[in-house]
Amino acid sequence: MYNGGYNRPGQQPFQPPLPVPGPDPRYRSVPGPPYGYQPPPPPGSDPQLWQWFSSVDEDRSGSITVTELQSALVNGNWTRFDLDTVKMLMSIFDTDRSGTINYTEFAGLWKYITDWQNVFRHFDRDRSGSIEGRELAEALKSFGYSLSPQLLALIENKYASEPASGYGPPPGITFDRFVRACVVVKTLTESFQRVDTDRDGWIQISYDQFMQIILSAP
């Protein structure tokens, strides 16, 4: 049994950014254009966003792969996004399950990242470019997750930047890993809440249920 550290009914936490629902995956688009051909921007699309999409779509396939997306996403210290974070973003916004991101899906992903950047800047009090200790606790608490010091330490150790020799990322959690950490905490908490039907912060589950909850996390 485990005691949850999430808000009880009646408490109103600050809401982290949520992905904007994409197009219904039942209505699949026709096969894409020939390799190397860059189609014109969709009607009503943001010209600047379309330019960014086109610059990321290096092979001019009309869609973005995991590798292309990772090469385009950087943290404030110019380090590339962690591959696991990129895969998580792909799984959220690849609504048609094609394995790539089209322009419509990219537009939702771009807004999602922009919203998270605003959250990150808000809690990066010392403007170090990373989230540490008290900043992490404040961010998660604002989302409604009052975690114990032991859990906070585990999260910080798990998602802190990898050690690097010479010039490397600052200590703490960089933007990309901060997003993934918050999404994982949110996903696990929601899975716990689905089992905690009486909302007392305690559950009793089987080993199989436990493994399903853990392995379903991003």
Put simply, the count of helices is 8
- Spans with pLDDT under 50 lasting ≥5 residues? 21-34
Strand/helix succession:
HHHHHHHH
What is the count of structural domains?
1
Question: What kind of sheet is the major sheet?
Answer: none
- Give the termini distance in whole angstroms: 23 Å
Helix share bin: 40-55%
Question: In percent, how much strand structure appears in the residues?
Answer: under 5%
Net shape: globular
CATH topology: Recoverin, domain 1
Q: What is the CATH homology-level superfamily?
A: EF-hand
The class by helix and strand makeup works out as mainly alpha
Question: Could you tell me the number of beta strands?
Answer: 0
Mean pLDDT: 82
Region (Disordered): 1-48
InterPro entries: EF-hand-dom_pair, EF_Hand_1_Ca_BS, EF_hand_dom, Peflin/Sorcin_CaBP
Protein name: EF-hand domain-containing protein
GO molecular function: calcium ion binding; calcium-dependent protein binding
Architecture overview:
One of its GO terms (cellular component) is cytoplasm. The chain has 218 residues and is an all-alpha fold. The chain has a single domain (47-215), classed as Orthogonal Bundle (Recoverin, domain 1), CATH 1.10.238. Helices cover 46% and strands 0% of the residues. The relative contact order is 0.16.
Q: Outline of this structure?
A:
By secondary structure, this protein is mainly α.
Question: What is the topological layout?
Answer:
Layout: H1 47-56, H2 66-72, H3 83-93, H4 103-123, H5 133-142, H6 149-159, H7 175-195, H8 207-215
List keywords for this structure.
EF-hand domain-containing protein, 218 residues, globular, metal-binding, 0% strand, cytoplasm, mainly alpha, Recoverin, domain 1
